[in-house]
Amino acid sequence: MSAETAASVGAAASGKAAARAGLVLTGVGYRYAGASAAALVSIDLRLEPGRVVGLVGANESGKSTLCLVVAGLAPGVIGGRLDGSVRVDGVETATMRPHELAQRCGLLFQNAATQLSNTTSTVFEEIAFGPCNLGLPAAEVVGRVWWALRTAGIEPLAPRDPARLSGGQAQLVALASVLALRPGYLVLDEPTSELDPAGTRLVADALTRIARETGAGILVVEHKTDVLAQIADEVVVLERGAVVLSGPAAVTLADPRLVALGVEAPAAVRLERAVRASGIEWSAALAEAIE
Amino acid sequence: MIQADEEALLPAYVRRIPAGGYRSLNPLTKLTLAAVSAIVAFGVRGWTGPAVVLVVVVSSALVAGVLRRMAPFALATLPLVASILLVNTFLYPNAHDVIAVFGPLSPTWTGATAALQATLRVVAFGLSAALFALTTPIDDLLGELERRRVGRRGSFVVGSALGAIPRTVERAREVVDAQRSRGMDTEGRLWRRFRGLVPLIGPVLFGALAEVEERTMALEARAFTAPGRRTILRSLPDSGWQRAARWLLLVGSIAAVVVSLAGAVKLP
Amino acid sequence: MGLLTRWVRRQFTTRVIVLMPVAIAINIVLGYTVQNVLKLPIYVDSIGTILVGCVAGPLPGAITGILSNLIWQYAPGIGGSSIGPFAVTAGVIGFMAGIWGYLGVFRSRPASGLRLIVPAAIAVAIIVVLAARMYTIPQYNDPNAGNYPSWVYGAIVVIGAAASIAVALFVYLRRDAAGAWVAVAGALTGVVAAIVSAPIAAVVYGGVTGSGTDFVVAALRQGGADVYNASLGQGLLSDPIDKTITSFVVFLILAGVSSRFLARFPLGDRLVHVDAEPARSPEPTGTPSDS
């Protein structure tokens, strides 16, 4: 019973991908309430369904602020002033209430513990928290929960107590909770920063799977450029609230200007540079072997 | 309202229907019993009120199998009981029926009686609270309340507070340990203990407040403010007689208090 | 009715709903630690209540207080003790804190020189008047109500003097006139709390509560006071002190938290100056800054 429901829910989700226009920021500027300087300046960004876009930049470059703006929480929940337009599948986010935004664009933070509601005793009910808030019929809620568990790859965790999970597991539960609202787009603000390598791998694999299976457009802020090298199609670099570099992931991550912008290149790129710098031949075979 | 066939959708670990004579009562019934116990234990003057409550509570605890686990709760009332017994027996105002003469601090029969009565009330109340705490999982209660229109925000506040307590205790414990290793006194002189208080409050408070912003956004991101009624997945059994019993108990207890206060019926 | 509904709804924003459980936990944990672990003769179980009251309003403050007491009494693991019936007092404290919040009592008022002395002087005067009033109430004077031993009068004088000096010092050292108003608000809250608690303690518990303050009750009884007056006498000695200390703690917390954070609460505009400068202190971690 649950498998069929889950499959049908999943099919409905990916079927939507083809028709969607993308999440588009045009000339977006943002200033926090009471702040003197703008946090974001004239940003143009496009998030296509099914694509993963990585966002990098030094500290204080506006990455977290951009996440809040893309997800519509700024200015919707935290106030402040927004210039320009943010459209999700053609609809301005400024016109949407927070619960409507939540169903279009999901947002994940780096600290998994603060995202759990702390009011549920099982992971199953934790993931059901969002759909229940929408007042959906019980059968649909259950279907969505199973689908989200499967997509995030955490079905065995369903009976567990959310308060007693490892960092990586908790982050995946938070991810599944957001997925259960079936957003067309996902924004993640440093999801692996508090995780060990095993947890990081879990989350990275889940993100790739989500983009592929549900057709969601994903924006990931990451300091770990290795993760982005693995999962991102495109990478955008921010500096002082403005986009300074953008392009396909492989190209942008290998750009020599990254270091000056406060971003460490992926290990493979650094290795290649070090090898070339010491005069050794760098061949495609070596690159293959490292991958 | 979830139907019977929809019930089957939920895995057993979500349905969590409690078993046992007392536990299987609807949480609202158990809540009513706790409230009524409090009202009668404190409101009905004399020995009868608290005695009845004690009998009911202890027998329910036996049925529910939690009698032994009530011991720590009973022990927790000890400082209060000791205080009541000492202060009232030896220092009851305007009492002259002295038990034995010890100068200015002579115990009196009036004082002792008042003390024992107060003790009985405290113990009855404490055990009724213990019975409720031990037999009623909070999410059961909150779910039932929400189904009866308490609203998602009230339910969230209580549920989240209960989850926040262990977290805050952990944080406080870490701070206390850190301070103790730096020489804070938890046993010593009053002034030292006061001094130790200040560095404890700051980190615990700021740590707790720091999360508020992110938790607010996380709630909004989960459609917490969506309009309409929230879906309640779990439903616990209730019955007509329980509903009737709840009303009867509530009305009956208030009536008993009124009658007792008015002095209409003299009970021991 | 529309006005009332709107007033109620305005006080219970999502942010307030998130703050309340945190405040309840603070009340319970700090109160338990102070009373049972450190065994000090004060309560310190209202910090969260007053905090919620002055940032959100009277209703959230009252509910925070009431729920704190009920949860403390009925929660598994820490239950027991005698705190439950005093939920009434806690509700009153929270409600009053909301009123102080509306009046802007907890707003910082940097001042210097003469503008500092006047509020300090007024506050000292009010404290002296309160103490003198307590000195002369029948409970302490009327032989029919119980003639109290002379140490009580001495205690009142000492406490009044110490409080006045402490407040004046605070105002002077922090160059903040608000200290005066906070002290007055705390003292008044304490007096009201004592008046509300006395009948509860007397009727429900025979005048004692099992906490460190019982020795005061005993001493007052020894002087001949009856059950109710002994409770009231003890309350009037310890509650104003406790609530004043608590109010100052809340004031210091509010001063240490960023104004951006405070401004987003319902009474935020009464807590921070209208043209808010950038945060004086580091953001609490977890608040997205411009990173």
Structural summary, described in words:
The complex is a heterotrimer of chains A (291), B (268) and C (291). By secondary structure, chain A is α/β, with parallel strands linked by helices. Chain A has helices at residues 2-17, 63-70, 73-76, 98-104, 123-133, 138-152, 167-179, 197-214, 225-231, 249-253, 267-277, 284-290; strands at residues 23-31, 40-47, 52-57, 81-88, 91-92, 105-108, 185-189, 217-221, 234-239, 242-248. Chain A has a six-stranded mixed beta sheet, sandwiched between helices. A four-stranded antiparallel beta sheet of chain A has the order 2-1-4-5, with helices on one face. In chain A, helix 1 (2-17) packs across helix 6, helix 5 packs parallel to helix 7 and helix 7 (167-179) packs parallel to helix 8. The radius of gyration of chain A is 19 Å and the shape is globular. In chain B, helix 6 packs antiparallel against helix 7. Chain C has 291 residues and is mostly helical. Chain C contains 14 helices and no strands. In chain C, helix 2 runs antiparallel to helix 3 (47-56) and helix 2 packs across helix 4 (58-74). Chains B and C meet through helix 3, helix 5, helix 6, helix 7 and helix 9 of B and helix 2, helix 4, helix 10, helix 11 and helix 12 of C.
**Helix-strand pattern of chain C, N to C?**
HHHHHHHHHHHHHH
Write down the overall mean pLDDT of chain A. Answer: 86
End-to-end distance of chain A: 41 Å
List SSEs of chain A in N-to-C order: HEEEHHEEHEHHHEHEHEEHHH
Largest interface, Cβ cutoff 8 Å: B-C, 78 and 67 residues
Cα-based radius of gyration of chain A, to the nearest Å: 19 Å
Keywords:
heterotrimer, B: 268 residues, mainly alpha, 11 helices, 69% helix, C: 291 residues, 14 helices, disordered C terminus
List the helices and strands and how they pair.
The complex is a heterotrimer of chains A (291), B (268) and C (291).
Chain A: H1 2-17, E1 23-31, E2 40-47, E3 52-57, H2 63-70, H3 73-76, E4 81-88, E5 91-92, H4 98-104, E6 105-108, H5 123-133, H6 138-152, H7 167-179, E7 185-189, H8 197-214, E8 217-221, H9 225-231, E9 234-239, E10 242-248, H10 249-253, H11 267-277, H12 284-290
Parallel strand pairs in A: 3-8, 3-9, 6-7, 7-8
Antiparallel strand pairs in A: 1-2, 1-4, 4-5, 9-10
Helix pairs in contact in A: 1-6, 5-6, 5-7, 6-7, 7-8
Chain B: H1 4-7, H2 12-15, H3 27-43, H4 48-64, H5 71-76, H6 78-91, H7 109-135, H8 138-147, H9 152-181, H10 190-221, H11 240-262
Chain C: H1 2-11, H2 14-37, H3 47-56, H4 58-74, H5 87-102, H6 114-136, H7 138-141, H8 143-146, H9 150-174, H10 178-205, H11 214-222, H12 227-256, H13 259-263, H14 268-271
